[in-house]
Design a protein that fits this description.
Tetraspanin/Peripherin, 8 helices, single chain, lipoprotein, mainly alpha, cell membrane, Tetraspanin_EC2_sf, 259 residues, rod-shaped
Length: 259
């Protein structure tokens, strides 16, 4: 009977090891996904972030990268602790899981609260950022040494199908328009079908005149991403509860350390 009981205990431990190992693989993949989103944000959306002239949004991307890296490292520690059956590593792994869990819950709740407070009743990332985008467009577009800003503005207007910061009339007071030798109303990137000098006409059939300014589209995009990130972060956090449960069970089932 004693031998049978010991065998059952051993089978339970092996089962927990495999379950925890599977959890760590999934956890590792999740960390890689978070890391990839952070890198994608910096690579693909860095132009938009620079136009907003705010460190908050670039900091958010770096936080995602850091969080993904921490999750990957934690997953590696979890795999080592599971395979080697080291209680000290299991404790470290459990503490790291708990810390990440609390951070993700806090971040998710803050993201949700910010989203609820700001959408759909607020019309701002904030007034300063709105003004910064307008000034950047008016003063730096098509100016010497500001090629990156020009490309970012063109990309923004085409991707979000908008014209100007608040509306197309923002371009009237731009340095580029006022200094032009020939009549220009808006940049060619405001056109629904961009072509050379198509910005000479501001008819709604030709440009994004009635679709709204770019700042509103950009706000909607950022707020939707904020909502998604909050939901995903909270979801992954509760998924970690399963990992913490498996870790505690495995810790209880392991025999005394052989070292």
């Amino acid at each position: 009977m004693e031998t049978q009981g010991e065998k059952t205990h051993t089978c339970g431990t092996i089962c927990l090891k495999y379950l925890l190992f599977l959890f760590n693989i999934l956890f590792w993949v999740a960390g890689g996904a978070v890391l990839a989103v952070g890198v994608w944000t910096l690579v693909e959306k860095s132009d938009y972030i620079s136009l907003l002239n705010s460190s908050f949004y670039s900091a958010s991307a770096y936080i995602l990268i850091a969080a993904g890296a921490i999750v990957i490292v934690t997953g590696i520690i979890g795999c080592c602790a599971t395979l080697k059956e080291m209680k000290s590593l299991l404790i470290m792994y459990l503490v790291l899981l708990l810390c990440i869990f609390l951070l993700e819950i806090i971040a998710g709740v803050l993201a949700y609260i910010t989203y609820q407070e700001c959408f759909p009743l607020c019309y701002q990332l904030d007034d300063e950022l709105r003004q910064n985008l307008k000034v950047t467009m008016q003063q730096k577009y098509q100016q010497p040494g500001e090629e990156s800003v020009t490309q970012a503005v063109d990309k923004l207007q085409q991707e979000f199908k908008c014209c100007g910061s608040n509306n197309f009339s923002d371009w009237t007071n731009s340095t580029w328009i006022q200094a032009a030798d020939y009549k220009r109303l808006v940049p060619d990137s405001c056109c629904k079908t961009p072509s050379e000098l198509c910005g000479d006409r501001d008819h709604p059939s030709n440009i994004y005149k009635v679709e709204g300014g770019c700042i509103m589209k950009l706000e909607e995009f950022i707020l939707s991403q904020l909502y998604i990130l909050g939901a995903v972060g909270t979801g992954i956090a509760f998924f970690q509860l399963v990992g913490m449960m498996f870790t505690c069970c495995l810790y209880q089932n392991l025999k005394e350390d052989p070292y």
